[in-house]
Amino acid sequence: MMNESGNAMFFVRINGVLPDVSGAAAGEGGGAHTSISVFSGGFHLLVDAGDGVADSVKKGASDLGYKEEPDAILVTHGRREHVSDLASFSGKIFCTSECAGQIAKELPQVDKSRFATVVVPGQPFEAGPFSIVPVAADNAGDSPGFPGSVIYVIRAGDRKVIAGWDFISLQNASADLMWNPDLAVLGTETYNDHPSTGIISVTQAYHLVKTWNAKDCYVLHYSGEKDKEDAKNQWHRGPAGPLSPEELQKTVDSYLRMAGQDNKISIKVARQGMVWRPAAGTTVESAAEDDDSSPVGNKIEIEALEKYVFGIEKMPGNRLMFVLEDSISRQESEFVNPRRKDSDGSSLHADAIKSMMMKGPELDLTISGTTVKTSIIKGKKPLFAGDIRVSERDAKKLSRYIRENF
After folding, report:
1. E strands of 107-215, at which residues?
2. What domains does the chain contain, in order, with CATH numbers?
3. Mind listing the pLDDT tens digit for each residue in 259-285?
């Protein structure tokens, strides 16, 4: 499949949003249980196949023109509501050994020859154009969790999607692995934290989106039933019961505005049949290009490949602001007399601000290939010293920023 710019199509469809309760309680008039399809170059990767998913996928194929039969199926865990439609498909099944045992017990009609590579948390595997890393998930709440439960980090080229539902915590999920997904699809049972559900809340999703630096997020699986317990607390000011999808979206939007994140974070309440595509102009092919014809301006922000977002701003009075942010903290440092140390824009130095009472830090920044070597030192004490990995495109853009401004 091709998009308007002629690049191979990459998109994600929401096949179902329902939690493990009735459709009415979930604020929907029925539908399919939690599931998504991820497409790249015509390859159809299905994640979970519970009640109603086969019909939803069939309708999506009719509406969008893709092939109905998935090429591969990822299963997060063996709860019946996530596997009951597996027999309606014929594609290869990828899951943990514990999950395979649960499926064999629940659905003996599923042909055992369909089970492909045994999924092991932390060990990457391939399915068509996708590179996939399973992450061990704990979904134990009031009832025992399902052994072998995982969520999936799915890559196709430079694209990354996190398919994560039915978990209250993740085990051994490295910050670099989860960092900077194009899309995170998160299952959220309640708005407020209720660990007894075994599933994260919308409130916890806010934190994960910021921690992972997710560009876009869909929340699904919501019921809000457990939030009724919060009505008993007279001091509680959050939602105290189920919200319709429209009400939940308004609540999410209001939170993001109050937190000052509405221009930085996009969180949508997922509906069955929704389709996500990368923003226009951010295809894998165009992202590899560096357009030298347009000026960078006096401010630049770069998302590193791992862990960091950093920004540089040339300020009035021959000053420079450098901002470094990770999932935990934000560091702002101001300098004077910024200047490049070579003609090609591969290095930048800025002096410390001096006053009668103190002397600030100084900055040294060097671009070496796709590594930005950064040193912020105050006296002999390093405030930050490390190598920040960036894309080839961003390395070129940063060099051009230095050449144009200093």
Report:
1. 115-118, 125-127, 130-138, 150-156, 159-164, 169-171, 183-187
2. 10-276 (3.60.15.10), 289-405 (2.40.128)
3. 888 778 899 999 999 999 997 644 433
